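Hi there, hope your week has been kind to you so far. Do you reckon you could talk me through the fold, stretch by stretch? I've dropped the whole record in just underneath, so have a look:
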Amino acid sequence: MTTRRLFLRIITLGVAVVLAISGYSLQADDAVDNLKAGIAREIITPKLGGLFMGYGSDKGSTAVHDDLTVTAITLEYGKTRVVLMSATVCLIGNDLCAKLRTLCGEAAGVPVSHVIIAATHTHSGPITIDQDVFGTDAEYLDEIFIPKCVAAAKASASEMRPATVGVATTKSLVGINRRQILPDNRVILGQNPWGAYDSEMTVISFRGEDGKSFANIVHCTAHCTAAGNNTEVTRDWAGVMIDRLEKESGAVTMFFNGMQGDVSPRMANGASVGNMDHAMEVGGLAGIDAVRAYKDIRVWRDEELSVAIGEVKLPHAPLIPLDEAREELAKLEAAPQARFKESMMNVFRLNIDLHEKGETGESHFVYSQTLIKIGPIVLIPVPFEASSEISLRMRAYSKFGHTLAMGCTNGSNWYLPSQDQICRGGYEVDRFKWSGARQLADNADMHLVNENIRLMDKF
C-alpha cells in the first residue's frame, strides 16, 4: 500500500468516525476512489494455410513460430471505466473495428467510446481488413478473432483489483526512419539514419496491493516487418520483447505501436524487412530496453483515470480539375497493370462524378476520437499509419509528461505522412494520395496534431 493511499484511507476513516458520532453514515458514493485494473489474454493464432496481411503475398502460412494474441486491460476509477486492447495482427479495418468496439464494450460493461483497440502491425498475421487485395478471411474473423477479442475484454473486466501505476521511459533504437533517399533523390523503403524517428520507449506498469506487478504496457515505434515475407505466423520482434518483459516482471504485457508509418525495425541488413533471425535479434534488443525502463520505475501511485471524447476533422484536398481527371483516367485505363492503378482510377472517377453533379463533396474526413488519461499519461488513438514526426510534435506541444500516440488504433485509413515528405514522394506518399477515394490535404498532419491537442485541453 502506497503512502498516499494509506493517508487517504486514514482521512476517510477519520471522516467516517466523525460523521458516525454525528449520526450520519458514510455512503459508498462518498468513499475515496481508487484505480482498479484487470488484464486478460486470448490466443488468436489462425489455422495454417491462410494468407498473410503483409506484402500482398499469395503464399499461405506453413507453420506457427509463436502464437498471435489479443490482450485486454480494463481500468476503472470511480464511475469511469475503459478497455484498452492490443491485437497482434497487421491492421483492423474500420467496419470490423467498430463492430469489435461495440461487442467488447458490451462484454466489459463500458460504452463503445471507451473501448480502444490497437493492431501491433505484424505483417505475419491473417487478413483483418477488407481493402486487402486478397479479401478478408471471414472464417478466421467469425470463428477466432472476434470471439477471442470479446472473451479477453470480458475476462479483463472480471479480474479487476486495486492497482497503483508506475511509468518510466528509455531511449530505444528498435526502429529507424525507412524513407531512404538515393543519390538521384528517389525515396525507397530502406533505412534513413537522419530521418525523423521517435526513439522514446515508455513502460507503464500496474501493481497490486501485494506490491507485485500484474500488468504492463509497452509503447515504442517500428513496423513489425523484421520477419520479412516468410510463411511462419509470428508476432515479429514485438513478441520477443513482450515475452522478455513478462519473464522479468512476472506481469502480463501488452504492446502499443507508435506512429510507425515511416519507421522500420533497425536491422543489420540495412533494409526495411528481414527474416526470422532479424526478428529475433531486434526483439532481443527491444526486450533489453523494455526491462531497463521497467526497472527504472521508482514511484507507484494511485492515479486518476479520465476520458476526453470529441471529433477529429482532417481537411480534404481540393477536387482535381475535371479535364485533368478525365485525361489521367483515360491514361490509366489504357495502361498495363501497375501499382495503385485501381485505387488511382477510383480517385479520378470520384472527382469526375462530383464535377458532373456540380458538387464538391465532404470538406473534411471526420472520425470520433477518445483520449485516455492515466495520471500524467495520455493515450492518443490514431487510425492511420502516420509518420513518426507527427507523434514527436504532439509530445512537444502537450502539457502532459507522457503523451503516447498509438498508430493503427481504432481503425485503419492507410498512411498519413508529414507535409514535408510529400514533395519527395515514395511509398508512404503514394499510399496517402491513392488509398482513399478522396485525397486528404497535404497539411492534414498539422490538423491531426492540433485537433488532438485541442482535445487534450479538455483534461
Notes: The two ends are 27 Å apart (CA to CA). Residues 182 and 188 are 8 Å apart (CA to CA). The chain has a mean pLDDT of 92. Residues 317-361 form one domain.
